[in-house]
Amino acid sequence: AGVKEDSFNVLDLAEYTKNRPWWRKVFASSSGSSAEKYNVATQLVIGGVTGWCTGFIFQKVGKLAATAVGGGFFLLQIANHTGYIKVDWKLVERDMNKAKQQLKLHSSGNKMSPEVKSRVDEVIIFLKKNVILTGGFAGGFLLGMAS
């Protein structure tokens, strides 16, 4: 019986991106801000479409999550009322007081960890460089939430 050898083609992504300028513009790590790559109308369209999609999905997932949380809370109240479960309200109150103390402690310092601060700075720099794209995204997101 003859042995059939399968041949595979290997795709070198580094070589592929060198031959595809549009790919390099979109995915290159040091490609700069989107304002340098696209005109204002294109940035608004890209931001608006992605924002609308995100808002639409967020709205649907949000409704589902709210229904699940509300239904779960309703079922727990029924189970508590009928005696299937017992809630230790003193323990709940003690844990809530601990959480309040920790929130007061963290909010009084008003200090962010260096990792969080660097991420926030990166986001702010991105938003400043891509004002038009961000504005389109925000508008599209609000439209997506409303639809």
From TrEMBL:
Localization terms from the record: Mitochondrion outer membrane; Nucleus
GO cellular component, one term: mitochondrial outer membrane
Keyword set, alphabetical order: Membrane, Mitochondrion, Mitochondrion outer membrane, Nucleus, Phosphoprotein, Transcription, Transcription regulation, Transmembrane, Transmembrane helix
Domain of life: Eukaryota
Main location (coarse class): mitochondrion
GO biological processes: autophagy of mitochondrion
Topology relative to the membrane: Multi-pass membrane protein
Recorded family membership: Belongs to the FUN14 family.
Its biological purpose: Binds directly and specifically 1,2-Diacyl-sn-glycero-3-phospho-(1'-myo-inositol-3',4',5'-bisphosphate) (PIP3) leading to the recruitment of PIP3 to mitochondria and may play a role in the regulation of the platelet activation via AKT/GSK3B/cGMP signaling pathways. May act as transcription factor that regulates SREBP1 (isoform SREBP-1C) expression in order to modulate triglyceride (TG) homeostasis in hepatocytes.
PANTHER family assigned: FUN14 DOMAIN CONTAINING, FUN14 DOMAIN-CONTAINING PROTEIN 2
Protein name (Swiss-Prot/TrEMBL): FUN14 domain-containing protein 2
Organism encoding this protein: Grus americana
